[in-house]
Write a structure and sequence with these properties.
about 300 residues; alpha/beta; pyruvate-formate lyase- activating enzyme; 10 strands; about 35% helix
C-alpha cells in the first residue's frame, strides 16, 4: 500500500521505472491512453481506465507537497502510463509549479508512448526540457515490426525511432526498454537484430532489457500471438548475445538488472561490450558456473 500521509490521491496499482525508486510519484493521468499491448496488464484493472487528472488537483498536490516536505524532494516521476499524452501547455503548467513549490527537484521524469509525440514538435519538447523534464522512459519492447504487430503495440520501428530522435534533439534523455523473449523462438533472431538496429540508429542515453513475463495475462497475449512460447533460459541468453553483439553504441548505459533477468548485466556501450559478451557467453556455455539470479529471487 502507498503511504497515506502524502497529499496525493493514488489509484492503485501504481508503477514506476526501477530507477525512480526514490522519486515522488505524482499522477497527472490515470492509466494508459493506448492500453492495447497484449503483453502488458499494468493498467487493465477497472479502476485504471484512462483519464487525465484535473489540472487543479495536480497543482494542489504539488503545493501541499511543497508545504509539507519543502526541500526534501529531489526527483519527481509523472505517472501513470504516459504523462506526455497531455497537451504541452498543461505539462508546462505542472513543470513550472514543481519548480516553484519544490525548488530542490533536480530531475523530472515520465513514461512516454512514441505515438503521443506525433502531436508535439521538437520546439515544444525543448520547452518541456527547459521547464525541467529531464528523462523519458520509452518502452520500445522491440525494433521488429512483426513482433510489434503480434503483441498489438501500436508502434513500428519508424514511429519509435522518430519519437526517440525528437526527444534526443530536444535535449531530453531517453531510457529505452527492450523485452527479451518477446518474439518467442519463432521471431527471436529478428527481434534481437532489429532491436539492436533501433538502438544503433537512435543512440539512447540508457538501454534496459527485461525478460517478458505473463502473470496472469497469457490468455490475452495468446489472443494475438497464439504460436508464442516462452524462451528457455539458454534461449534467452542466446538472444541477448545476438542483441549485444549487434549493438554499435558510443556512450549508452546498459542495464539488465530487473528482477525478471536471470543474468545481471551492467556496463557502458561500447566500452564494456567485450566484457558483457563474455558474461553472456559464459552463461550459455556453463550456466551452473555463471552468477545467475536464483529462480526464487526473480520475484515473478
Amino acid at each position: 500500500m502507498l503511504p497515506a500521509i502524502l497529499p496525493i490521491r493514488y489509484v492503485e496499482p501504481v508503477y514506476r521505472p526501477p530507477s525512480e525508486a526514490e522519486s515522488l510519484i505524482l499522477p497527472v493521468t490515470d492509466g494508459c491512453s493506448w492500453n492495447h499491448c497484449t503483453f502488458c496488464e499494468m493498467y487493465t484493472a477497472p479502476q485504471k481506465r484512462f483519464r487525465a487528472r484535473a489540472e487543479s488537483e495536480v497543482l494542489e498536490s504539488i503545493v501541499r507537497i511543497g508545504e509539507r516536505f519543502g526541500d526534501a524532494i529531489r526527483r519527481v516521476f509523472l505517472a501513470d502510463g504516459d504523462a506526455l499524452v497531455l497537451p504541452t501547455r498543461r505539462l508546462l503548467t505542472i513543470l513550472h509549479a514543481i519548480r516553484r513549490h519544490l525548488p530542490a527537484v533536480r530531475r523530472v521524469a515520465s513514461y512516454c508512448l512514441p505515438r503521443n509525440l506525433r502531436r508535439k514538435s521538437v520546439s515544444e519538447l525543448r520547452e518541456l526540457a527547459a521547464a525541467g523534464l529531464s528523462i523519458a522512459y520509452v518502452g520500445a519492447e522491440s525494433g521488429d515490426d512483426e513482433v510489434l504487430e503480434r503483441v498489438n503495440k501500436g508502434e513500428t520501428f519508424a514511429s519509435t525511432r522518430t519519437a526517440l530522435d525528437q526527444l534526443g534533439e530536444a535535449g531530453i534523455k531517453r531510457s529505452v526498454m527492450i523485452l527479451n523473449g518477446l518474439g518467442g523462438p519463432e521471431l527471436s533472431l529478428r527481434h534481437a537484430e532489429n532491436s539492436a538496429r533501433l538502438a544503433n540508429a537512435t543512440q539512447p542515453e540508457y538501454l534496459a532489457t527485461l525478460v517478458v513475463t505473463l502473470p496472469p495475462g497469457e490468455e490475452r497475449f495468446r489472443s494475438t500471438f497464439p504460436t508464442w512460447r516462452p524462451l528457455t533460459q539458454r534461449e534467452l541468453f542466446v538472444e541477448m548475445e545476438g542483441f549485444v553483439a549487434a549493438l554499435n553504441l558510443e556512450r549508452t548505459v546498459l542495464r539488465s538488472d530487473h528482477a525478471s533477468n536471470w543474468l545481471i548485466l551492467k556496463g557502458t556501450l561500447g566500452a564494456d561490450k567485450d566484457r558483457l559478451l563474455a558474461q553472456i557467453r559464459q552463461a550459455i556455455a556453463n550456466p551452473a558456473g555463471a552468477p545467475l539470479r536464483p529462480a526464487w529471487a526473480r520475484g515473478l
